[in-house]
Amino acid sequence: MPKAPAITAYDAQPLHDRVVLITGGAQGIGRGIAQAVLGAGGSVMIGDLDADAGKACLQGWQAGDRAAFRPLDVSRESSVRSWTKAALDRFGQLHGLVNNAGIADPHQGPLHELPLETWNRYLATNLTGAFLCSKHALPALQAAGGAIIHIASTRALQSEPDTEAYAATKGGLVALTHAMAVSKGPRVRVNTILPGWIATDAWKKPPERHAPKLSKQDHAQHPAGRVGTPEDIGALAVYLLSDAARFVTGQRFVVDGGMTIKMQYV
Questions:
Q1: Which one-letter DSSP state was computed for residue 210?
Q2: Strand, coil or helix: what is 17?
Q3: Rounded CA separation 129/187 (Å)
Q4: With contact defined as beta carbons under 8 Å apart, do 65 and 38 qualify?
Q5: Is the peptide bond before 186 cis (omega within 30 degrees of 0)?
């Protein structure tokens, strides 16, 4: 009879020597993920349209050679190409990509009044941006046996009125996830995180940073008892980027404190 498998110790630094690209990484959820990666021993290249926010991250983190920033517009292929090349020039290899950048405002008015330009802007940033970053990072990720995470939203599963453009792009990321997982496995794993209500006020650049103003009712809407933080998303991202998740691909993970499973009655 074969021996039972031995107990395996958990790695306190599961991303040691790993390099992760994070779009929209200078503020909010993106910054939370970047800090989680650094805390797990990894290195990060963050990209963001806001150069001041990106520089503030590097100054605040004091992570030395493990953190870099370069301005990035995910809707422009030339910008994505340059950003990815800069990461490879800096670190030599890539192990993970987090497609977090996107237009955060879901509300754009009634669909019959929605300008085509606005609709296309959401598509270009929230969905095409993830495609472009994946496209240019994939050769290096395939070489390293890496992982991709798309940051979608619980609005891919449920909606408020007048949020069609946002919801469509987030739903598109969920579909893109399983398509890529099938196409690029087994060398690259692809998963998506669907955050719910995440308070990002304290995770902005210094001039805009403040404590979140949340009521008891805001917290009470969540079975978990509170509104989420970027750290909640970062913790799951670290797992999905690590070898601990090597049997996990093509999946969607809802991180919303239980809001989407709570029945609502008026």
A1: -
A2: coil
A3: 22
A4: no
A5: yes
Task: Report residues of the chain scoring pLDDT below 70.
Answer: 266
User: What pLDDT was estimated at residue 266?
Assistant: 67
Using alpha carbons, select from 200, 197, 202 the residue that is nearest to residue 221: 197
Helices (H), the chain: 28-39, 51-61, 77-91, 116-122, 129-144, 164-184, 216-220, 230-241
At residue 162, the pLDDT reads: 96
CA distance 44 to 96: 9
Residues 6 or more apart whose Cβ sits within 8 Å of residue 265: none
pLDDT at 1: 79
- The per-residue pLDDT for 102 is 96
- For each of the domains in the chain, give its residue range(s) and CATH number, in order of start: 19-261 (3.40.50.720)
Tokens found for residue 128: 């095409």
Q: Which residues are catalytic?
A: 166
CA distances (Å), origin 170, targets 183, 245, 246 = 20, 23, 25
pTM (global) more than 0.90: yes
